[in-house]
Design a protein that fits this description.
heterodimer; A: alpha+beta; 4 domains; six-stranded antiparallel beta sheet; four-stranded antiparallel beta sheet; 18 helices; 12% strand; globular; B: alpha+beta; OB fold (Dihydrolipoamide Acetyltransferase, E2P); 2 domains; five-stranded mixed barrel; two-stranded antiparallel sheet; cell membrane (chain A)
Chain lengths: 644, 148
Amino acid sequence: MIAEFGLAALWLAAALALLQLGLAIGGLKGGRPELQAAIRPVAVVQGALTAMAFIALITLFMRSDMSVLLVATNSHSMKPWLYKFAGTWGNHEGSMLLWVTVMGVAGAAVALFERALRRDTHMATLGAQAAISLGFYAFLLFSSNPFARIDPPAPDGQGLNPLLQDPGLAFHPPTLYFGYVGLSVAFSFAVGALLTRQVDAAFARAMRPWVLGAWVLLTLGITAGSYWAYYELGWGGWWFWDPVENASLMPWLAATALLHSATVLATRDALRAWTVMLAVVAFSMSMVGTFLVRSGILTSVHAFAVDPERGSFILALLGIYIGGALALFGWRVGTVREGAPFELVSRETMLVINNLLLSVILGLVLIGTLYPLMTEAFGHKVSVGPPYFDRIAGPIALALMIAMAVGPMIRWRRDNASAVARRSMAPALVGLSVLAVVAVTSWGRIGILPFLGLVIALTVAVASIAPLWGRKPLRTPLFTWGMVIAHLGCAVSLGGMAADSAFTVEKLVAARPGETIETAGWRLRFDKILPVAGDNWTALQADMRVSRGGGAPVAIHPQSRFFTSPPTTTTEAALLTRWDGQLYVVLGQEADAGRWQMRIWWKPFVTCIWLGGTMIALGGLLALIGRERRGWTLKWRARRATAA
Amino acid sequence: MKAKHQRLILALVALAALIGAGLLAASALKDEAAYFYAPADVKSKGVEPGKAIRLGGMVVKGSLKRAADGVTIHFDVTDGKATVPASFSGIAPDLFKEGSGVVAEGAFDGKGVFVATNLLAKHDERYMPRELEGMSYNETTHQMKAEK
């Protein structure tokens, strides 16, 4: 019953999306006011129905209903409940249902909460949102039905990929999807504003909170995914330039650029056409990412489905939506009036540079990701790996960091070059002294990029708090705090990356129980190997005690786990976090009689990478709250004034 | 300066940045186009020592040897046409074994041995290195062939 209920809810939601699109078209053509008023409730009900369908699927997974094909192929009755729950989206159909759910819920949120937009633009926005949703409903219902039954029911399920059996699965995909798909709202706003010719500062002010919200979740999702890969894969790396990682990075780059250009448009009424373009590009990148991940043309732990039919379906959707939006843009861009002028030395210019650099990185990552696919079409198998991405993204990202440090010190519209130089004196001095110190202490021992990374990270950290100088902390607007914390987060994250690649110490040994291993100031005493068992796995575990200096020993337990359904081995690295870094221990195979392979890393300040990512998201959240609160305060004051 | 001139300057800067980025990408991709090698490519084209590449093929049966330190292994990689000696220090993936496919990341040393820093083994049907798709290893002849 539950599966049929879910399917019915999904069909009904699709029908409502069609109705919503029809109402929007009718409304824009000057339809009757009561029909125009209906569009909000329709969007809300549509969102509620998708949520119900999703809850139905979660229920099926929780109950291990093996008469449902998706549950039988991806779940197992012996799994811990958390992975039954999170396993709902650990497969192709479930993750696509999560996609349309987020899209429906985001549309409902726009219908419920968006009051700043003009009525006709709002209607057009909801219409655009419905149009995108329709394509994905069709994809789900016609080629990826999550509620399909099998007869007879399977005796038990085939289990979930053990790499995914981690608490990270409960957090990383939903957060990422809310960010990813949340960008569809920005896309719909852009389409709506183009349709009603309302591309102006008020449009940017209305769109900005939605972009900020999606961007915060996207940042959190990427940060969580990076940390998850770092501790789960046991390779000690935190970013692999896997096409799937690039698929999440590209929308983030576009959304970051959009966030800043929307600020220019909202504050100074400049960069109109460009902002609209970016809003289209950002969600297009989300769809390109989905195509790459879900079409099966790439192999990775994220690619569940290898089905060419689905690939062509998504490709067709991609063509319709991106092509359609770009065509609309080309058609209407002439009606977007020229924005306000600005001088060369101004914050606007710095934000243009920010956008330019972000777009360049985006373009280069896109080329690197698609290049193997394009050459394969001509019969060559080529893989583009970390050497390419490091070489192109590294230098541009460093230039971007410098622009980020200088930007907030320059005034809007027009500034004086010598005044800017005076303001950036202190950070520049700090930068030069750091340069001197790092150069003297570690010249020749670390690579050029990590070296520059360390220097720039520390300089930018100082520069990013410069906007707070001479201000009273409590009187500083919350969104200024948000900007400062987000920029500081970038510096912290960059510092972590540079420190990790410059100073990591790696040791590889084959050790017998009873031996003590020494590396990077740590003493690791390997006590014994013993078998342990979990709910659906057994493992070999090394009991170790580690200490540093004269400190008390701490017990750590790296494991090598064996899962039976499906049969797979995973490494569970032992991580010991200290303020100045992380000790990372992986247990390998038995080398020969009695000796066990171990890989040990001491990674100084590696945790800064994810701390910085969290700070960036927190900064975005503060900016969002700050802007919204200011809006409420103004509204409240206005209301009180009219009442008096 | 007039606003128009400034727009022009900005546009020129943007154009210069784009051209620069395009050239950067082109030069990086030119190196990258030669990123993946099969043993036969190594023999025919030659790879300079120290250049980071991916070497892909099958691990020859009977070639896998463990060094005394317990963490280094030596093995041969073949694509049926040529064979290349390789070594790896570290924890090899569980599915790394003789007669099975492997993609090794690393570089050649001065003596023609491929020193791998990372091994990507065929995990299961759902996750295998892309370069090994459509290749199989003949158990009796120790030959590798491409499936069509």
